[in-house]
């Protein structure tokens, strides 16, 4: 089996700033992804796992800036893991009737 030593985890809170993501009834995806990402970051650190956030407050990040931050974390190591959080909604009769947290796990 291919053994890789993970150097750290980059936690990305999807959307942010002027990009709210899914919106319904005053709820915005960007707020939930930030809350989930802050929790994940704190928990990883509690467990002794090196972690960084692409953003830790509500800010605009271009795609290029988000990728730059992720790729530069941990010295650009290919043994880092990226978790990008998004909350998907849609398809039902009620707003946000089908909601799911989507975390894309990727080696960067």
Give the termini separation: 20 Å
Mean pLDDT, to the nearest integer, reads 84
Strand segment count: 6
CATH architecture: 3-Layer(aba) Sandwich
Describe the structure.
With 108 residues, the protein is an alpha/beta fold. Helices cover 26% and strands 30% of the residues. The protein is built from two helices and six strands; from the N terminus they run βββαβαββ. The strands form two sheets. The protein has a four-stranded mixed β-sheet with strand order 4-1-5-6, covered by helices on one side. Strands 2-3 form a two-stranded antiparallel sheet. The radius of gyration is 15 Å and the shape is globular.
In short:
With 108 residues, the protein is of the alpha/beta class. It is built from two helices and six strands.
Task: Give the helices and strands, then pairings.
Elements: E1 8-13, E2 23-24, E3 27-28, H1 29-46, E4 51-53, H2 63-72, E5 80-89, E6 99-107
Tags for this entry?
Aminopeptidase, alpha/beta, 26% helix, 2 helices, 4-stranded mixed beta sheet, two-stranded antiparallel sheet, 108 residues
């Amino acid at each position: 089996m291919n053994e890789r030593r993970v150097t750290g985890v980059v936690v990305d809170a999807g959307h942010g700033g002027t990009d709210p993501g899914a919106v319904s009834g005053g709820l915005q995806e960007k707020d939930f992804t930030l809350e989930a990402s802050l929790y994940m970051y704190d928990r990883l650190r509690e467990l002794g796992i090196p972690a960084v956030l692409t953003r830790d407050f509500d800010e605009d990040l271009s795609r290029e800036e988000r990728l730059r931050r992720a790729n530069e974390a941990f010295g650009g190591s290919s043994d880092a893991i990226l978790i990008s959080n998004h909350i998907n909604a849609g398809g039902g009769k009620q707003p946000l009737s089908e909601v799911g947290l989507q975390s894309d796990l990727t080696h960067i």
